[in-house]
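To illustrate the input format used throughout this study, we show a single complete record. The first block contains the structure-token representation of the backbone; no residue identities are included at this stage. The design step must infer an amino acid for every position from geometry alone.
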């Protein structure tokens, strides 16, 4: 996603990040949409100067608040019918936990749910299904949207800046390590080559000595064959 977003024009980055955040909050099954990831990556791009960090944070906050408001209306109009849809059938336990949190904490659950990916998509419609008044919902929705939106974009911003510094530092260290490895490799190669040449020379000398000995033995045998056989004369 980082590579894809960084390839877009700055104006389109704002739009894409805002849409991902909005859709994550507006749809009952928005937990499959990487809105939070988009906000963090947008912050990383801001650290690189691609977009303005405060303009991006404003877009994320607005998209989060608007998305939750749409999610509230979705829950108010379609409610229980959505809980029986296929994408949610396997999440009944977590849905029950979210509803229990709303019963215990009321509107505070909307604020707390903003910071849990699965609850972030479910809290707005579940709040409407629990008959939480919209004005009270909006207050805690706005508080959560501001804290979450600014917090996660700044998280991406500072993480991106730190990564750039670490990348630069690690790049210098890595270059030194590579240079050291190359030098050591050349030294080892030179030593091994010198040893291999000496071994070849010694082997050649040994072969020459063996050959000389073999030739000497052959000459001795030939001389022995040429000498007359000695004997005793009576």
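Output of the design step:
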């Amino acid at each position: 996603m980082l590579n894809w977003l960084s390839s877009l024009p700055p104006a389109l980055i704002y739009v894409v990040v805002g849409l991902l955040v909005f859709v994550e909050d507006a749809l009952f099954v928005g937990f499959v949409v990487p809105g939070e990831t988009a906000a963090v990556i947008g912050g990383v791009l801001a650290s690189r100067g691609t977009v303005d960090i405060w303009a991006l944070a404003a877009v994320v906050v607005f998209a989060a608040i608007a998305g939750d408001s749409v999610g509230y209306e979705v829950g108010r109009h379609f409610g229980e019918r959505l809980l029986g849809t296929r994408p949610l059938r396997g999440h009944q336990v977590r849905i029950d936990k979210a509803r229990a949190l709303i019963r215990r904490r009321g509107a505070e659950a909307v604020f707390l749910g903003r910071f849990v990916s699965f609850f972030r998509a479910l809290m707005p419609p579940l709040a409407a299904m629990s008959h939480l008044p919209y004005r009270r919902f909006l207050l805690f929705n706005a508080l959560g949207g501001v804290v979450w939106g600014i917090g996660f974009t700044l998280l991406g911003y500072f993480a991106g800046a730190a990564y750039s510094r670490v990348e630069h530092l690690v790049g210098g260290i890595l270059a030194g390590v590579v240079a050291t490895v190359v030098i050591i490799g050349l030294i080892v190669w030179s030593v091994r080559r010198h040893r291999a040449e000496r071994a070849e020379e010694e082997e050649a000398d040994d072969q020459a000595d063996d050959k000389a000995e073999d030739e000497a033995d052959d000459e001795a045998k030939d001389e022995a064959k040429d000498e007359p056989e000695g004997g005793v004369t009576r």
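Structural context for interpreting the output: The radius of gyration is 40 Å. Residues 75 and 125 are 4 Å apart (CA to CA).
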